[in-house]
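Request: Not sure, any thoughts?
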Amino acid sequence: MIEIGFCNKEKLQSLKNDLMKLEKTAFHPDIQEDWESKSELIKNSASCFLAWDVNRVIGEAYAVKDLSDEDGDSADEKHLQEIDRKMKVENGVYLCSLAVLPGYEGRGIARQLMEEVFDDLREQGYSVVYSHAKEGASSHLHEVFGGELIGKRENWYDTGKTHFLYRIVL
């Protein structure tokens, strides 16, 4: 039975293998986080929920309130700096990750994860969520939640993929 639950940040180390498996299967190698970066993102997240099947993590969604560590000179890093400025003005966050393991896709798990994160963010008083999504199911899901397409990035971080930027009012 699949369950969605708030991420217990104190027990992150025990989730390392599951979370890194998810990272490696869900994200292009050029944008995968290493464990140190991923665990810091989750520890400092405004909201983090995980999907479980029995005793293993099969999905994640987390939002961060600060993108200011993106201080590089690439066009993509400058793009994230611009989003960070908008977030600060609008009391917003950035949905940093929304991922579900292959084999579990198409079951509404990503939708449930987004609902939980968005409900939690609303309760905390956040007003808006910015998020990038790939074309297809992820983009469609952002639109289901009322996401307004406000931009797109060709060849996102040299992945060869186009990512679309959405703004979702909570």
Notes: The domain at 2-169 is CATH 3.40.630.30 (Aminopeptidase). The chain has five helices and seven strands. The chain has a mean pLDDT of 92. The helical segments are 16-26, 35-43, 75-90, 109-124, 137-144.
